[in-house]
Design brief:
heterodimer, A: alpha+beta, Ubiquitin-like (UB roll), FAD/NAD(P)-binding domain, 5 domains, 6-stranded mixed beta sheet, 47 strands, 19% helix, B: alpha+beta, Gyrase A, domain 2, Alpha-Beta Plaits, 2 domains, 7-stranded mixed beta sheet, 4 helices, globular
Chain lengths: 809, 194
C-alpha cells in the first residue's frame, strides 16, 4: 500500500476541518451565543457545552496533557475567565453562555479538583435524605420515581446541566414512548414531588464513611454574571440512609499506539455530539468494536447524515447480521483486524490496521480518517495487544498511565463516578473572634482594637497623633497617679456550685479554698496532671455551695476543660462557663476609692471592704459584684455586672470619675501595671514551672531543688546598640553573667517585659532556674540571634514598692 | 426596668435585604428580653426533684432529653439526663430558681450570656442547613425539639418553636460573627430583619 506523507496541506489545516453542524440535536438554534476562545470570536447555541461549540467551530485540540505534554481533545481542562478570575474547567462540562471567554490551559491535572481551593466562593450545605441517587439516566429516573412513590425523601443528582443521561442521545423507547419524551415526562413528574430534590450540575466527589457523600454543585460558575447573593459552588454533605449509583458503566476502549490522539471518541461521547449537540465528529469516521454495540451506532449516525468510512472488528468470527448491516450501508468492514496505531500530531489523520493472528507476512492497512469511534467489550476472545513501534500506548489516557505488557488489553475511556480524585475540602470555620459587651462604648471613647487570642480588645485610647505604645504608658502613669477604668469583660468566668464544690476546689487549690469565708477572694494556681502550672485562678466564694472562678482570657478554655476532667461524675457539683454572661470593669488608682464611693452611695456602710473581699448588691436595679483587688498592686477594684448592663456601669463610673480625671485604660497599660506589680499572667504559665515556682502556695506542687522560679529583672547598663533594639523583650534567653559568650539553652527566659513609665526604665518578669537564690546577682538577657545583649539584675517580681499606695487606699 | 444592651448593636438593621421577592424567604428577629437558666439535678435527688418541678409547673412530667415542654411564658427543655434548660420570661425563671435548693441541684442564670435569634419564613430550615449538620427535616427535628449544634465552630442551642420558627441561642461574644454569617447566607432567599 502506498504510504501517504502525513504533512499534506489538508493535514496541517486539519486542526480546523471536521466538526460541522448537522441537523437535529437539542441545541436551541433560536438562541445563538457568542464566545471567545484563545482570543478568537466564535458562535455556538444555547444547550451547547464549550467543547461541542468548539468542535462545531473546528477546534478539537483544546490543550496539552500535564505529564507528556500531548495534545488533548474535548475533555481537556480549559481556563474560563470571569470577573477577573480564572477557573479551570473541563470543556465538556462547561455550559456555553453568551460572552464566555476561555483559553487553553497549561499543565492542569484534570482529575484534581483545583477549583475547590477558594473557600470564600463555596457554600456548605448539610442535606439528609432517605435515598441518594447518583445519575439521572433511565435507571436513575426510574429508581427516583419508585423511591419517591414509596414515601422516601429522594435526592437525585446529575453531573450534566440536563438530567437524563443517555436518554439525551439514544434512540430507544421506554414504556411505549420515545426516549426523549419519556425523559421529559419523568422529570416533570419528579419535579412535582415535594419529597424529591433534583440537583443538576452536581457531581459526587467523595465518600465519607458508609452514609455520607460529598457533592459539588456548580451554582454559578457556568454563568457569565455572578449574582453576589449566591455562592459560586456548593459543597453538599449528604447523609443518606441509602446511596444508589446509577451512573452507567465505565467506558473502555482498545490499546494501541497513540490511543490518546484527539479525534478518538468513545461511542457515548460520539453519539452525544451527534444527537444532542448536532455536531459531526469528523468527515471520515472509522468505527471500531468487538461486539454489537458498535454496530448499533451505525444506523444512528447514518440517520444523522454522518459519513462512516469503515468498520474494524477484531473478532475472527463476525456475525452475519453485522456483515449484512455494513454491506447494506455500503461501509467497508474489516473483520479479524485490529488497530495497531493511530497517526496524527494534533488530531487523528490515519489508522494502521493489522490482521489478527500475527502473520509477519501480512501487510498493514493504512486507513485515512479524521475520527475514530470505539467501543470495547470484555469478551473471552482477548483483543490483540499492542505491537512495538512508534508512539505511546496508554492504559488510562486521562491520567496518562502507560500500558504495560502484563496489563489488560483495554484502556479506560470514561469514569462514571469520579470518586477517585484528590479532594481537599476546607471545613467551614467562622472567625473565632469574640466581642465584649462594651465594644460600642469603648469605640466612642476612642479605643484602638486589636485581636488578642480569641478576643477583640481595646488596647489603648490614644489621643490625636499619639502612638499606641506612648498612649499605654500615659494611661499606666495616670493609674499610678490618679485613676483609670479598664474593660476586663473578657476574663474567663466559671461558675462552680453544689454541696461538693468546696471539697472539689480544695483538692485542686489547697485546703484554704474550703475554708474561704463567703465574700472573700483567693488566688490559686491550677496545675496540670504532672504538677506544672496551667493557669492562675481567682476564686470568689459567693455562698457556702457556690464559687465563681475568674482567670485570664487565654487560659479560660484550658481551665474549664481541666475542671470538667477533674470533676467526679458522682459528686453534687456543676461547672458552667459564664464568661459571656458577666461584664467586668477594673477601677484602679489612688482616686479609685473616692470614685467608687460617689458611684455607689448604697455602699456607704460597706466602706470597710477588706482587701481580697467583695460584696454583692444592687443599685437602681443594677446587680453588682464589687471586689477589692488590684492588678496594679495599688488601690483597685473589680466590678462585675450582667453583660447586657455593662455599658450602664461603664457610663456611671466614667460620669462620676470625670471630676477626678478618671481616664479609660486599655490592655497594654494594664499589662505594664501588672509587670510593675509583679503579678503573674498567662505568659508566666510555661511548661516546667510549678505553683511554688511562681510563688503561689499549692498542695499539688512539692517543689524541688533546681526549680524554675519567677523573678523580676531590670537592666543595669545601657547596651552598646541603639536604644530601640536594646530594650528588654519577652522571649529573650537568660545566661550566666560571668562573661561567658552566650550559647546553649540558657538558664531562663524573659516571659513579660515593658518600659515602666513610673520607674523610667525597662522591667521584666522571668522564669529562672533557682531564681530566688540568685536575687541581687547579674545575668545576661540575650535576644534572638545573639542581639541585643543586656546585663540585668535579678530582684523580686514586684518592681514597685506599693505599700504607701495600698495604705492610702 | 433596665434595658439590656443588645449584642448586635450596630449590626441589626430592620428591613428587607437580599434577593427581591414578594415574601422574604427568611425572617430574623432578635429577642431582646428573655431569661435563660441552666439547671443541673443531682443524681440522688433527681427523681424527687423532677416530680416536685412537674407539680410546680403543672406539667405531667419534665421533658425527655432533646425535648421541650411549653410553659406559660416559656419553655423547659432537657439536653441530657439530669440537665434542664429554661428559656422564656423572667417570672417562671424566678419560680424555678427559687424551687431548687442547693442540696437538690444547681441553677445558673445565663440570659445575659446569650443572644436569642428567632428565624422564621419558608426557607428558615434551608438556611440553617447551610451551617448545621443536624437532620432538620420535620420528622427528625419536630416541633419542641431542642439540640446543641454549631455553625462554623460557633456553638449554639437550637430549638424548634413551631412548624416555621427556630430559636437560636448564641454565645453573646460570638453573636456578631453568627449574625454576619446568617445574613450573608440568607441573602439568596431574601430576608427580613424584624
Amino acid at each position: 500500500m502506498a504510504r501517504i506523507w502525513p504533512f499534506t496541506l489538508r493535514h496541517i489545516t486539519g486542526r480546523r476541518a471536521a466538526g460541522q453542524r448537522i441537523g437535529g440535536g437539542m441545541i436551541d438554534r433560536e438562541r445563538p451565543l457568542a464566545f471567545l476562545f484563545g482570543g478568537e470570536q466564535m458562535q455556538g447555541y444555547a444547550g451547547d457545552t464549550l467543547a461541542s461549540a468548539l468542535l462545531a467551530n473546528g477546534h478539537l485540540t483544546l490543550g496539552r496533557s500535564a505529564v507528556y505534554r500531548r495534545p488533548r481533545g474535548l475533555d481537556a481542562t480549559v481556563l474560563i475567565e470571569r470577573n477577573g478570575k480564572v477557573t479551570p474547567v473541563r470543556a465538556s462540562e462547561q455550559e456555553l453562555y453568551d460572552g464566555l471567554v476561555a483559553r487553553r490551559a497549561v499543565s492542569i491535572f484534570p482529575w484534581i479538583k483545583t477549583a475547590i481551593a477558594d473557600p470564600g466562593e463555596v457554600e456548605h450545605v448539610h442535606d439528609h435524605t432517605d435515598v441518594l441517587i447518583i445519575g439521572s439516566g433511565p435507571k436513575g429516573l426510574r429508581r427516583a420515581v419508585l423511591a419517591a412513590e414509596s414515601g422516601a425523601d429522594v435526592i437525585l443528582i446529575e453531573r450534566d446541566f440536563e438530567p437524563g443521561g443517555r436518554l439525551l442521545y439514544e434512540a430507544g423507547s421506554y414504556s411505549g414512548l420515545e426516549a426523549a419524551d419519556w425523559r421529559a415526562q419523568m422529570i416533570t413528574h419528579l419535579k412535582a414531588q415535594p419529597n424529591v430534590r433534583l440537583y443538576p450540575r452536581t457531581t459526587a466527589i467523595a465518600e465519607d464513611g458508609r452514609t455520607s457523600v460529598l457533592l459539588e454543585e456548580r451554582v454559578q460558575d457556568y454563568l457569565r454574571e455572578i449574582d453576589p447573593v449566591l455562592p459560586v459552588r456548593r459543597l453538599r454533605h449528604v447523609q443518606a440512609a441509602k446511596t444508589e449509583l446509577e451512573t452507567g458503566q465505565e467506558e473502555i476502549g482498545f490499546v494501541f499506539q497513540n490511543n490518546d490522539v484527539p479525534g478518538i471518541f468513545d461511542a457515548r461521547t460520539a453519539l452525544s455530539l451527534v444527537r444532542r449537540y448536532a455536531v459531526q465528529p469528523g468527515d471520515r469516521i472509522v468505527l471500531y468494536g468487538n461486539d454489537e454495540t458498535i454496530y448499533a451506532v451505525v444506523p444512528l449516525l447514518i440517520k444523522a447524515g454522518v459519513p462512516i468510512t469503515a468498520i474494524v472488528d477484531p473478532r475472527t468470527m463476525v456475525p452475519a447480521r453485522c456483515h449484512q448491516l455494513a454491506r447494506s450501508a455500503g461501509i467497508p468492514l474489516y473483520p479479524g483486524h485490529c488497530i495497531v496505531a493511530a497517526r496524527g500530531r494534533h488530531r487523528l489523520n490515519r489508522l494502521i490496521l493489522r490482521k489478527t493472528g500475527d502473520d509477519p507476512l501480512q501487510r498493514d492497512i493504512h486507513l485515512d480518517c479524521d475520527a475514530l469511534i470505539q467501543s470495547a467489550a470484555i469478551t473471552e476472545e482477548q483483543p490483540p495487544v499492542p505491537a512495538k513501534g512508534r508512539g505511546k500506548c496508554f492504559a488510562d489516557p486521562e491520567k496518562e498511565t502507560l500500558w504495560a505488557p502484563d496489563s489488560p488489553a483495554y484502556s479506560l475511556l470514561g469514569r462514571p463516578y469520579p470518586l477517585d480524585g484528590e479532594v481537599i475540602v476546607p471545613a467551614e470555620k467562622l472567625p473565632a473572634l469574640r466581642i465584649g459587651p462594651l465594644k460600642s462604648a469603648l469605640e466612642r471613647a476612642g479605643a484602638v482594637f486589636r485581636t488578642q487570642g480569641d478576643w477583640q480588645l481595646a488596647t489603648a485610647f490614644p489621643a490625636a497623633d499619639e502612638e499606641e505604645g506612648i498612649a499605654a504608658e500615659r494611661e499606666a502613669l495616670a493609674v499610678r497617679n490618679v485613676a483609670g477604668l479598664g474593660d476586663i469583660s473578657h476574663l474567663g468566668k466559671i461558675d462552680v456550685q453544689g454541696p461538693d464544690a468546696a471539697a472539689f476546689l480544695a483538692r485542686l487549690f489547697g485546703e484554704g479554698w474550703a475554708k474561704l469565708p463567703v465574700g472573700r477572694l483567693r488566688h490559686g494556681i491550677l496545675s496540670r496532671e504532672e504538677g506544672q502550672a496551667l493557669a492562675g485562678v481567682l476564686g470568689w466564694r459567693l455562698a457556702p455551695h457556690h464559687y465563681c472562678l475568674t482567670t485570664a482570657a487565654p487560659s479560660q478554655a484550658a481551665v474549664l476543660l481541666r475542671l470538667k476532667e477533674m470533676k467526679p461524675e458522682e459528686e453534687k457539683l456543676a461547672v458552667t462557663d459564664i464568661t459571656d454572661g458577666w461584664g467586668a470593669l477594673a477601677l484602679d488608682g489612688p482616686a479609685a476609692p473616692a470614685i467608687l464611693a460617689e458611684s455607689f452611695p448604697v455602699l456607704a456602710q460597706e466602706s470597710s471592704l477588706p482587701a481580697m473581699g467583695f460584696v454583692t448588691f444592687e443599685q437602681d436595679e443594677l446587680p453588682l459584684r464589687l471586689a477589692r483587688l488590684s492588678l496594679s498592686g495599688g488601690a483597685g477594684y473589680e466590678i462585675m455586672t450582667p453583660a447586657g448592663y455593662t455599658d450602664i456601669l461603664w457610663n456611671l463610673l466614667r460620669e462620676k470619675g470625670k471630676s477626678r480625671s478618671l481616664i479609660p485604660v486599655g490592655t497594654l497599660a494594664r499589662n505594664i501595671l501588672r509587670i510593675e506589680a509583679g503579678h503573674i499572667g498567662p505568659a508566666e504559665m510555661h511548661a516546667g514551672v510549678t505553683a511554688a515556682g511562681l510563688g503561689v502556695g499549692s498542695t499539688t506542687s512539692p517543689g524541688h531543688k533546681k526549680e524554675v522560679q519567677l523573678v523580676g529583672l531590670k537592666p543595669v547598663s545601657g547596651a552598646e546598640d541603639d536604644k530601640d533594639t536594646a530594650r528588654l523583650r519577652a522571649g529573650m534567653t537568660l545566661y550566666e553573667g560571668d562573661g561567658t559568650p552566650p550559647g546553649g539553652p540558657g538558664i531562663g527566659t524573659v516571659t513579660s517585659a515593658c518600659h515602666s513609665p513610673t520607674l523610667g526604665h525597662d522591667i521584666a518578669l522571668a522564669l529562672l532556674t533557682e531564681g530566688r537564690a540568685r536575687t541581687g546577682t547579674l545575668i545576661r538577657a540575650v535576644g534572638e540571634g545573639g542581639k541585643p545583649v543586656i546585663d540585668v539584675k535579678i530582684g523580686p517580681p514586684r518592681h514597685l514598692d506599693l505599700q504607701k499606695e495600698r495604705a492610702d487606699a | 426596668m433596665l434595658e439590656r444592651n443588645s449584642a448586635l448593636k450596630g449590626q441589626r438593621i430592620h428591613g428587607r435585604f437580599g434577593k427581591a421577592s414578594e415574601q422574604p424567604g427568611v425572617t430574623i428577629e432578635e429577642i431582646r428580653e428573655f431569661s435563660y437558666l441552666e439547671l443541673t439535678l443531682w443524681e440522688s435527688e433527681a427523681a424527687s426533684l423532677r416530680s416536685k418541678l412537674a407539680e410546680l409547673l403543672a406539667i405531667q412530667s419534665l421533658p425527655a432529653p432533646e425535648q421541650s415542654s411549653l410553659l406559660p411564658g416559656g419553655r423547659l427543655f432537657s439536653l441530657k439526663a439530669g440537665h434542664l434548660g429554661y428559656l422564656g420570661e423572667a417570672g417562671p425563671a424566678d419560680i424555678l430558681a427559687a424551687a431548687i435548693a442547693p442540696e437538690e441541684g444547681s441553677v445558673v442564670p445565663l440570659g445575659h450570656g446569650y443572644c436569642c435569634l428567632r428565624l422564621g419564613g419558608p426557607k428558615a430550615a434551608n438556611l440553617l442547613r447551610r451551617g448545621i449538620r443536624l437532620d432538620l427535616r420535620d420528622r427528625a427535628f419536630p416541633v419542641h425539639h431542642v439540640a446543641r449544634a454549631d455553625i462554623g465552630g460557633i456553638g449554639l442551642l437550637l430549638l424548634r418553636r413551631d412548624g416555621g420558627h427556630f430559636d437560636l441561642l448564641v454565645p453573646r461574644s460570638q453573636a456578631v460573627e453568627l449574625w454576619r454569617w446568617l445574613t450573608r447566607r440568607a441573602a439568596q432567599f431574601g430576608y427580613q430583619v424584624l
